[in-house]
Write a structure and sequence with these properties.
Blueprint lengths: L5 E5 L4 H5 L5 H10 L4 E5 H4 L9 H13 L3 E6 L14 H17 L4 E4 L5 H13 L3 E6 L8 H13 L4 E5 L10 H9 L4 H13 L3 H11 L3 H12 L18 E5 L13 H10 L5 E6 L2 H4 L7 H14 L5
Helix pairs in contact: 5-6, 6-7, 9-10, 9-11, 10-11
């Protein structure tokens, strides 16, 4: 059993306050460090102007100064491939690879060892950029994001690249949103405020908790209503699935990082939708010893009615991970 799972925070968690300029980049780092987390993850395009261009020497010096000041470590940079930057032109693989290389150099400059590769990146592109990543000692992690799971056909194609190349620089980054046992309450309630039928919403939530296949739920709701908002609620069951945490076990040696998704951390420091105790227990039993990085995304579902407090939500998530034996 591994009790060496480390704790990090994705600064994406503070997106509400950062966007509204209530928190600076340093404020986000300080808030993450205050939870006891030792790792920092960023969405470079959100946090660093000009990303993926290598930042100025002054910024790099300031960045590492913050890392030392708050006693944290750069862990992961989240990259994107913007295939449609030019109207009417879709990137070729070669253009995507060149963009990807810029992210690798960006990550290297700021001390990150891991790049979260956006889920829609093809295995062909990753295989082409792998030698460059290996030369710079940067690990690439394909994001295993709902509705996909680690054993889905798309992920198996990436696994084939891992196996065929024998690389140590390509693996999986599961997102905890793939273990959604109860549909997120904050998301469902927001859809009701936007006009969804409360009874249909209740039905969809009940079906999801029973483990009814999403396609059946969608079909039944289509007979109840032809309103787009009601169908969108039904689709939550398809796009926010629950997969048995044991599905991670065959790939445990290929998991290089984990996104600790949370949409509603309760006062008792448990997540409303995701059974973290079950998932973390599987990870510990089978030897995962990387980071779990808090990724709070509930802000968008409550900002119309409540004051968002991302700092408190992240703190509760970190307390939960600590209680479960992570980073202690």
């Amino acid at each position: 059993m591994s009790l060496n799972i480390k704790r990090a925070v994705s600064l994406y968690s503070y997106q509400e306050e950062y966007f509204l300029k209530k928190m600076s980049l340093e404020d986000c780092i300080a808030a993450a460090a205050a939870t006891g987390a030792t790792g920092i993850e960023i969405v470079g395009e959100q946090s660093v102007p000009g990303c993926p261009k290598i930042p100025s020497e002054a910024f790099i010096e300031q960045w590492f100064g913050w890392m030392d000041k708050y006693k944290v470590t750069p862990v992961a940079h989240d990259m994107f491939l913007d295939y449609n930057k030019k109207k009417g032109h879709y990137w070729s693989d070669e253009e995507a690879v060149e963009s990807f290389k810029k992210d690798i150099l960006f990550a290297k400059a700021l001390g990150f060892k891991i790049i979260r590769v956006i889920v829609n990146t093809t295995p062909q592109i990753i295989e082409k950029v792998l030698p460059f990543a290996e030369d710079h000692d940067i690990k690439l992690g394909i994001e295993v994001h709902a509705p996909w799971n680690i054993n889905s056909a798309w992920m198996l194609r990436h696994w084939e690249v891992m196996e065929r190349t024998g690389t140590k620089h390509f693996g999986f980054i599961p997102d905890m949103g793939g273990f959604t046992q109860r549909l997120p309450r904050v998301q469902v309630e927001r859809m009701i405020r936007n006009g969804a039928d409360p009874e249909i919403a209740k039905y969809v939530c009940e079906q999801h908790e029973k483990g009814v296949m999403a396609e059946y739920t969608v079909y039944e709701v289509s007979k109840m209503s032809n309103r787009r908002i009601d169908m969108a609620v039904a689709e939550l069951s398809r796009h926010t699935p629950f997969v048995n945490p044991l599905s991670l076990v065959p790939h445990i040696d290929r998991i290089i990082h984990i996104h600790g998704k949370c949409l509603e951390m309760l006062e008792d420091c448990t997540e409303y939708s995701i059974p973290y105790n079950e998932v973390v227990a599987v990870l510990q039993k089978h030897g995962y010893n990387g980071y779990i990085a808090t990724e709070y995304e509930g802000n968008r579902h409550i900002q119309d009615i409540y004051e968002v407090d991302s700092v408190e939500q992240v703190r509760r998530h970190q307390e939960m991970l600590k209680h479960l034996g992570c980073g202690i």
